[in-house]
Amino acid sequence: MTAKRDHEKNTAGEGHSGSRFLLWAAGVAAVGFLIYLGLNKGFFKKGPGMFPDANVLLFTLDTTRADRIGCYGYPNVRTPNIDGLAAQGVLFKNATAQAPLTLPSHSSIFTGTYPFIHGVRDNGGFYLEPENVTLAELLKPRGFTTSAFVGAFVLDSRWGLNQGFDYYYDNFDFAKYKKISLDSVQREGGEVAKAFFDWFKTNGDRRFFSWIHLYDPHTPYEPPEPYRSEYSGRPWGLYDGEIAYVDSIIGKVLESLREKGVLDKTIIIIMGDHGESLGEHGESSHAFFIYDSTVSVPLILRLPASNLKGKVIDAQVENVDMMPTLLDLLGIAVPKEVQGRSLVPLLAGGRAGAERMAYSESYYPRYHYGWSELKSLRTVTYKYIQAPRPELYDLVRDPMEKSNIYGQNGPQAERFIKELKRIQEQSSVQGTGEKAPRQLDNDTLEKLKALGYVGGFTSRAKLDRSEGLSDPKDKIHLYNKIKQAEGASADREYDEALKKIGEVIDEDPGIMEARQVRGNIYLELDRPEEAVEECRAALEIDPEFGAAIFTMAQAYRKLKKPDDAAAGFRRLLQLDPKDPKPHVNLGEISLVLRDFDAAISHLEKAIAIDPEHSAVAHNLLGSAYLEKKMLEPAEREIRKSLEMRPQIPDAHYNLGLLYEEKGDLQRAAEEYRKEIEIHPAAYPAYFNLALLCGKTGDRQGEFENFKEAVKANPQFAQGCLFLAKAYLDRNENFDEAILLARKGLELDPEAESAPLGHYVLADIFNRLGRWSEYREEIEKGQALEARIKKR
């Protein structure tokens, strides 16, 4: 990978003369192009660039197919604002995304490089590393105020796309979501636009580059009214409704530019990051295949004060072309690492030269299921897909890619095979390749193997091989069943989820993600031993499968094996040091083990990695300081967590503990009541409030709060014992007190509070004249006390 400083060596005259990975002409005839510019002074301004003073506004429309927009010929949706921009500018009919996934595709858009160069091959677990040069980084030092407004967590700043942006609006509040995942954490386009409007009020008078990412067409398809009513009732109608809603958001943004008087000074780009299968080829959504349904995207360019109105360009282009095109229009040198090609010659009426080819890939089947990756090259007329069973389509006669003519057109197939081989050979020299695992020392490796975290010594060799992998075409039905199982599990339909995932594993036991999904279901059903076994099976296939390591570590925590769980979380840190979750979990485990210094270290690291989403880490850090009697930093951290998430669990409870430590029992009681008000099932808060009531002589309050603690958690052993004692003190309901004391002892017979259960039973039996039982419980209580003292 080339370092960032290298791009500064380029000059405007050098352009982007670096390596080329596709078939295209050596260059447009320079003299002819200059003559064209001279004859069209009304279109292009003189100077280092055609629009050296323009603003730039980029819209990326997530999950948006080109063929579902009005100006691309689709009659069943209203997109007047997108259509209007196309009528005022240039529409590219054949634009191709480099990947059917959000993060890899946006990484290509902003770097102008293919995934095998920038290194982001999938969502999650991949980062756009700092050595990549982004469009924002090139514009910022040249006088642009840069801002970004993203609609989904998959583009959160933690993944690295924030490079070069003065302001990056992600700020996702995880507390709003029942399920936390890359797909589920998203926001409506109206919220994204509002963030832009707030920023634009104070920054719109400056020269700006702004990126607005609209995620709405992604599943679930839930457009707001009136689009829901207008587009429901027909197949994929709500998907169209989401696109219509996005169009309305674009219209509002354009109106804000018009009101500010900067619309005609702004280059506007509309482009999709990838499409959506909508049931074609057996795929309902995207990520799996790279047919045109998921990689053919809209690309519209509106230039200020140009005479390029309503121009349609048929040439094959691709998303990596956007970056060099903008730089060319602005008169900024294109870094030599860029594979994208400026589209300015096409805008100026030049010919494409040799037939352009567009590259796409999907590593999703390989990374998640151990099946073959897919790679493709596309021209205007043909598309080749490299797979275990190769595919070739005549896009003129067969635009839906239904008839594979690979075996019927040898010369065309050979041309694509040769070119893709050249690209792969070039990428093996210059690209990132597959991420190599960190080397482990033998002692660590043996321990991890013993715990099931490592299935063997092969590391990523199974994923690195290129032969013998299943063709995704043959596995789409299993992929769909896995997704159905995940959906059923999310809806708590666990029997159906186990049925579906069992069918998958029966047919193909080697699908690591299916094993991990079943492990998660077992975890939800409180069957941690079975969860461990499923994760072991997944890790036999790929010892670096992070999701299985995480699930297994969580299962070990449920099994009350903190050391084994910690080994898994440490392994995750080796695989991905930028992930804060292992540090948070290791912090919690360290608290349980009363290693408070280790807890503080891990939690501080988690906060440093992800300060925006660190409310839980701040609260746990407060707990660690509280255990060390460091009350001021404890209160600071707990209040920081409440500032970030006012309803975060346990924060008010921790403040109650803190005020008890300070001797302020009234404020402690207030904090416990706040915890209960926000979280009615907070049984520790009820329990501590009961103890406070006892200290202040409020026996009724003590009794009622012990009852609430046990009601909130019937498996709370200590609560059962203290409630039994409360009945004894009230000299009532001895039968209930006996049941509670025995239950508490059964739940945790060796707890420090367990002797209390024996003594309560002894007292009751004494009052009832049951002498032999009285003596038996006295002896048990004394023996247990002696064992506890020896610990």
Written overview of the protein:
With 791 residues, the chain is α/β, with parallel strands linked by helices. The strands form 2 sheets. Strands 1, 2, 3, 4, 5, 6, 7, 8 and 9 form a 9-stranded mixed sheet that branches. It has 33 helices and 13 strands. It folds into 3 domains: 4-422, Alkaline Phosphatase, subunit A (3-Layer(aba) Sandwich), CATH 3.40.720; 436-575, Alpha Horseshoe (Serine Threonine Protein Phosphatase 5, Tetratricopeptide repeat); 714-791, Tetratricopeptide repeat domain (Serine Threonine Protein Phosphatase 5, Tetratricopeptide repeat). The longest helix has 24 residues, at 237-260. Strand 12 and strand 13 (391-394) form a beta hairpin.
Provide key terms for this protein.
single chain, 791 residues, alpha/beta, Alkaline Phosphatase, subunit A, Serine Threonine Protein Phosphatase 5, Tetratricopeptide repeat, 3 domains, nine-stranded mixed β-sheet, four-stranded antiparallel β-sheet, 13 strands, 49% helix
Structural class: alpha/beta
The percent range for helix content is 40-55%
* Total tally of structural domains: 3
**What's the number of extended β-strand segments?**
13
Query: Which runs of at least 5 residues are low in confidence (pLDDT < 50)?
Result: 5-48, 177-184, 434-439, 456-463
Instruction: Report the CATH superfamily of the largest domain.
Output: Alkaline Phosphatase, subunit A
Strand content: 5-15%
Give the N-to-C terminal Cα separation: 57 Å
The main β sheet shows up as: 9 strands, mixed
Integer-rounded radius of gyration:
31 Å
Overall CATH architecture of the largest domain = 3-Layer(aba) Sandwich
Overall 3D shape: elongated
CATH fold-level topology of the largest domain: Alkaline Phosphatase, subunit A
Estimate the mean pLDDT confidence: 88
Number of helices: 33
Oligomer: single chain
CATH class of the largest domain: Alpha Beta
